[in-house]
Every structure is written in structure tokens, then in C-alpha cells.
From TrEMBL:
Signal peptide: none annotated. Its EC number is 4.99.1.2. Residues 14-72 form the Alkylmercury lyase helix-turn-helix domain. InterPro entries: MerB, MerB_HTH_dom, WH-like_DNA-bd_sf, WH_DNA-bd_sf. This is Alkylmercury lyase. Keywords: Lyase, Mercuric resistance, Mercury. GO terms for molecular function: lyase activity. It catalyses: an alkylmercury + H(+) = an alkane + Hg(2+). Cleaves the carbon-mercury bond of organomercurials such as phenylmercuric acetate. One product is Hg(2+), which is subsequently detoxified by the mercuric reductase. Coiled coil: none annotated. Belongs to the MerB family.
Amino acid sequence: MREIVNRLGLTGEAEATLHVALLRELVQGRPVTLERLAASLNWTTDQVVQMLEQLPCGTVEYDGQGRLVGFGITLRETPHAFVVNDQPLYTWCALDALMFPAVIGEPAQVRSHCPRTHKPVTLTVTPREVLSLQPEDTVLSLVSVATEGDIRSAFCCDVHFFASRSAGEAWSRDKPHASIVTVQEGFELGQAIARQLLDKAGSD
């Protein structure tokens, strides 16, 4: 957990506050301008720019107009669909899908697929629990955060849902840094990270 938080650059109150505000803006389903993010934070635009520049490289996604379109939750398609209030969104990895409902305070319908069997995986994640998991024995992979690269290449690219433990274990055989855990265990880790983020940000 500490490795993930550190790699995201969320070690301080201001960084965490920005992250929570940006996630809550992104779930509206449209690119976030610097001015809009500044208004939601009650900061100046210069303060927002300065804070964004201090975050690790690759932490934030921008579009061609300089608007923010991703920071764990993204408007760009990934293997992990994340639907909030009928708004189609995506997450960078399986753990994000389990973690961010607690941060945004909204349930999400998650649709992914098993990279080993290509079977669909669906679930509803609320701020407090996981519901309607199919297949019921779905698991996810977790990995140690690599020492190099941005958070997506160092962690997210190897954090997937698998339709069964056997599928996850088969995928992880040549990945000594990977662990296969239950969805509930992943959800509990996500809850712990979300709570740390919200506590640092002073948010509910």
C-alpha cells in the first residue's frame, strides 16, 4: 500500500486533496479543465498547475487541449470498464475498480475480462462492499511496484481480474513478483488505500 501511495505522489495533504477532487470531477464523464479543477478545490489555477507538475511522470492523462482525462479513473478505454451513474468510464487496473467507489462515494458497475481465458468478469462495487460478482470465484493479481517507470507500467499493467484461481495462477507462473488474491482481499486493500487518501485529503 505504501509503495502505491508513494508512486502516485500522494504523500501530502495537498496531493491527496487534488487527487480526490480530480477523481470526483472525472466521474462526470467529461475532460476536466485546469480552471474547473481549481474552482472545485478553491485554489488558483497556478496552484493547480504547480501541484500537477510535482506529481510523478505519467500519473495524469491529458488530452490534446491540455485538459485532464485520467488519474486512475480515465475517460480513455482500458480493459476495465467502470460505469458510474450510467456514465461510461474506465480504470487503469483491477485494483482501481475496487478502490475508487469509496473515494468518489458512488457505486460502480465494473466489466472486465480474464486475460488468460478471455471470459467476462462483472461485479458491482459500492463504497462498502462488492456485489454480484460473476464468476463467483474471480480473483485478481497484485504485484510489487517496480522500481522504474510510471505507476501504470510499474504496477497497473499486471493487475487484472481472472475468471478463476487456476487461470490467475497459470498467468502468474512466470511472474515471481505477482500474487493471486480473492476479490474480497483486493477490495480490502483498496479500502485501506482509499481511506488513507481520504484521511490525508480531509474528505468524507
